């Protein structure tokens, strides 16, 4: 086990009042650890530590900061098995997926270390010969990250890497269900030589942490991954100090199977897009639209593939682990029951799986619903579970119209072989990320983020660096 205390100013600390929260395994309900339930005073201390560490950290050269990030990335890679086991124990995802998340998270640190070396300014030609104009890019200052439970390492490193690479300091608030991975990363950061106060990790409830963060004018930037509803509240909180935000919010992704799609590619890609992390992903395919001429054969092949998905504890050889908590199970079951009651056909699955003594009741069978209509809950709400809803559509235009008929705009998927048709579809889709014949498009090198109520700002690639930089224009009269 890694550390289980808060990291504030380089010290490992209990909550000020000694309160703690139990962390359990969603697969078995076994107690994994207790972590501090921090108070507002603890958060204020973390902000103070980050503010105190800022001048020295931002004064370092980009190369020196990159060296520290490279050491942290190397430690994450070296400890990948321990980190993967930790992710599986507190999140429940299959161990193979946890290992993939560690690799994914490592990529954000490694990429940011190198991209931080390429934060350039500009020289701007002046209309006056007695003036010289330049543009500087400087760290925004103290930042905060509020991360979700479904990817507890990757969603943190995606924020932490660019923040540290650009010279910012950070306070991290991990999800209450999965705080151990963030604390483990904090421990590795200390070992890598990240100076005291540059990274601080505080565990506790969202409102207790968010309140002091948004009330303190020293915190200039917050990056949040989570629900649209919470994101909207953070926008309201940010108004007081005009705190910069990056928001990755709800998804509800559509997936389009066009009339010329390669069936094998479409089935395999849709399987990954839907059931990765047991469907608990903001970019999980939630609405599957299949052109009528391919509908029957796609449904038959997809159901056959879904039936091969094994359910069990993440430390076993399975593809489907437990849902994160009882509320998640309740929501998934409600979506299934609502669809069936309104006329959808239950092709497979449909309820929880009893795995016997020692297992929780959070294992839900991989489920396929066919004949899904727009008036069903699964068509308007994120399911966040292993349920695929498939709808027939008359043609490509109808598929695009239904795909865009949503307040969300995070990710979408298209399967087809006609490059002209696919290109036109991609250009019409109102989504920030589009996978073409690709069920897993996320990567450290590319910008990730959404449109509409799915948020704003981008993470990944060179685009994320600007999220942590201020632009300063300098005019010099000679």
From TrEMBL:
- GO MF terms, alphabetically ordered: succinate-semialdehyde dehydrogenase (NAD+) activity
| Domain of life (superkingdom) | Bacteria
The UniProt entry, under InterPro entries, shows:
Ald_DH/histidinol_DH (IPR016161), Ald_DH_C (IPR016163), Ald_DH_CS_CYS (IPR016160), Ald_DH_N (IPR016162), Aldehyde_DH_dom (IPR015590), Aldehyde_DH_Superfamily (IPR050740)
Looking up CDD domains in the UniProt record yields: ALDH_F5_SSADH_GabD
Q: Please list the GO biological process terms of this entry.
A: gamma-aminobutyric acid catabolic process
Domain called Aldehyde dehydrogenase: residue spans: 12-474
Q: Which Pfam families match?
A: Aldedh
Q: Which Gene3D superfamilies match?
A: Aldehyde Dehydrogenase, Chain A, domain 1, Aldehyde Dehydrogenase, Chain A, domain 2
**Keywords (A to Z) from UniProt:** Oxidoreductase
Family from the record: Belongs to the aldehyde dehydrogenase family.
Q: What is this protein called?
A: NAD-dependent succinate-semialdehyde dehydrogenase
Organism, as annotated:
Acrocarpospora macrocephala
